[in-house]
Structure formats: C-alpha cells, structure tokens
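Open question from group meeting: does this chain pack into something compact, or does most of it stay loose? Before anyone orders reagents, we agreed to write out a predicted structure and look at it together. Recording both the input and the output here so the notebook holds the full record.
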Amino acid sequence: MRAIVINKIDAGQSVDFGDFPETDLMEGDVVVRVSHSTINYKDGLAVTGKAPVVRRFPMIPGIDFAGVVESSEHPDFRAGDAVLLNGWGTGETHLGAWAERSRVKGDWLVPLPKGLGAAEAMSIGTAGYTAMLCLMALERHGLKPSDGPALVTGAAGGVGSVAIALLAGAGWRVIASTGRPEESDYLKGLGASEIIERASLSAPGRPLGKERWAAGVDSVGSTTLANMLAMTRYGGAVAACGLAGGMDLPASVAPFILRNIALLGVDSVMAPKTVRLEAWRRLAAELDLTKLAVMTTTIRLEDAIEPARSIVDGKIRGRIVIEIG
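Structure tokens returned:
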C-alpha cells in the first residue's frame, strides 16, 4: 500500500513516500480503507522531528483518518461502515493515518456523523474536534455569550479557525489574536469581530491586566496564555489545548484568587468515547460548512510532507485535507 513513512537514521530521521507492506500493520480488530486524512500541528512535529512525538520506527504519521471499514472483528462495526478516528496514539506509538489502510482497535473509532462526508470530517479533524471540546468546556463552566467576548489565539491556524466559526455561530463576540495581520479578512469572514496583534500577548505582562474577555480558547501556551489569564474578566475561563508557543506558563495565581477565573485543560487524544460522540454530533449540527470550505485546502498524500513541515513554522492557514483513496 502507499504510505508516508518515518524511519530512524544516523542523522536523525528520514521521511519518504512509497510502498509499505500491509502485513506490517499493527494489531487491531478493525481494518479501515483510509480515504482522507489531514495535517495537524502534532503531525508536523512528527515529520520534522522537532519534538519526540514518534515513539517507534518505522512510523506512518497522521493522527486522524476517515474511511470505510474493510473487515471487522469488533461488535460495533462491520464492513462498509463509514468511520473516523482522532488520536489514541496513532502516528505516535501506533502506525498512523497517512496510508491507504490502517488496522486499529474498534474502540478508537467513531461512526461518521450524519451530515458530514469523509473529506469534511477531515477538514474538521483533530483541530476542529479539539475546538469543539474547548467550547464544551467553557459551556460546562457556565459561560455564555452575554458574559462578554471570547478570545481565540493562534487564530489563523486549524484550532483557531474552527474555534472562531463555532464561537461566532453560538452567538459569541469573537476577538482573534494572530501574528499574521494579512489574514484579517479571512478571520472576519469566519466570524471574528476584532483582530489583535499576537505581539500584544506574547511579551511578558503584568500579573493582572485590564479585564477584556470572559472566555478564551488558547492553542499557544506560554506567555500568551499567561497574558490571556491576566486579562480574563471576573468569573471567566480559558480553555487551553495547545503549546505551539511553549510548555511553560509564566503566570501568577493573582487572576485565579482575585478574579475567580479558571484554566480548563482540554485533551483530545484520550478523551472518552462518550465525549467524542457528543463533540462530533455537535460539529455536524453546528459548524457552518460554508466556513469550513473557506478554511480548507486539499492535497494528495504524496504532497503532504512539505506542508507538514510548514505547519510547525506557522505558515499554514486553516485546514489541509489529504486525499488518499
């Protein structure tokens, strides 16, 4: 089968497109013929080797796929079922999605939601699914649009783009933070009401700043997240799901104990299946597919390596779908 494969070499690692023996697929009770995948930030880290994402070699990268079940020993799935997968260590410890077939555990799979095609599901991908998990976390905290605006960092990226569309669709006034001011029209088209420069959040700030937003979705981390917290309104919350700017958090306890705010950690990789099903149900029902199309570029599998490198450098706008089958 055709696949992109990462191998360990003396100089680090190699990444190549070519043939991979299907007999080397890993253990699982469902075989899926993959039709579409996507490129996430974690895939970029795997391809570039800039972080220890890959834990075994050889590795097929790709943490997301959509496709059709070819064979199944799992009671919930049978041949012909349309399914998708996000995370669970695929592309890290388990051979991933950038191949024509994948053998995985059926417990990792989610039925393709009604109203979404395979390409649309991968346009959403882990980035969009994570954005919905962030919205759900903010709602569980009790926040609503009438409480004030919501800030989205890394706005032109995958998580940010979908988060803007979801929040705006739910009635929030969205403030978008980006280091690419040339993308302002794109971000406003997705639903952002205001654009602010990334530099206003990326430099060290004060423990407490002027209260500006009631909620936030952050995929950057580090100083950006610290400044978001410092300027969150009393009783507000920030859903944190990424670390593109770093794993550190140079913040103080002041916003938490003086403004009663919350930092909500959001994990997409190991989220329980009940949570995944709810997130995907809501994505199918609430995400504006015309906005999804605007943020999406489609490429072939053999062309995925360079965009995967570019996403780590913040050069990719929106979402990239990989057409495989």
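Observations to bring back to the group:
The chain has two domains: 2-112+295-323, 126-265.
Residues 2-112+295-323 form a domain with the Quinone Oxidoreductase; Chain A, domain 1 fold (CATH 3.90.180.10).
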